[in-house]
Design brief:
Catalyzes the conversion of 2 pyruvate molecules into acetolactate in the first common step of the biosynthetic pathway of the branched-amino acids such as leucine, isoleucine, and valine. It is built from five helices and nine strands; from the N terminus they run βαββαβαβαββαββ. The chain is an alpha+beta fold. The N terminus is likely disordered.
Length: 186
Amino acid sequence: MSALNIKRGSSSHSAYDLRDSHAQAEESHTLAVIVENEPGVLARVIGLFSGRGYNIDSLTVAEVDHTGHRSRITIVTRGTPAVIDQIEAQLSRMVPVHAVHDLTAEGPSVQRELALLKVVGKGEARIEALRLCEIFRARVVDSTLESFVFEMTGTPDKIDAFAELLRPLGLKEIARTGVAALSRGA
């Protein structure tokens, strides 16, 4: 008999089940970060995420105050509440950062993304792609005899749903802008 006894049907925990039963679930959070519009700031912000092993699901950047030379970085990331708090604290301590807002925690927000989706197909697949375009309120922005390019603005979930329905109809390429978000209300 071997030195290792394994009981079949035993309810004991496996050595491979290393999950913490008290661990908090990861949540998706949208962060709005107001920064100085100067060279290297975006690289520093991204470096904070990559250096600590945090993932960025979506990233958009644009100058929002020309006279004050400030840009807004909108980041969608995921983590436990403790990890999100840590990300916020670390971003707030960075010198070129003026403000960090967790739009998810602060209340309702409006989030939109723009996507361009190319579908290649003929016959019934083309007709079905056009039907879906109407249902999802997308627009045809380019058309050839064998392809369409659709433009769609909506929540990331809506764009994902549209893309999944287009996949069997010949979806070949997608370009997405990333999430732009603002909190609702005053």
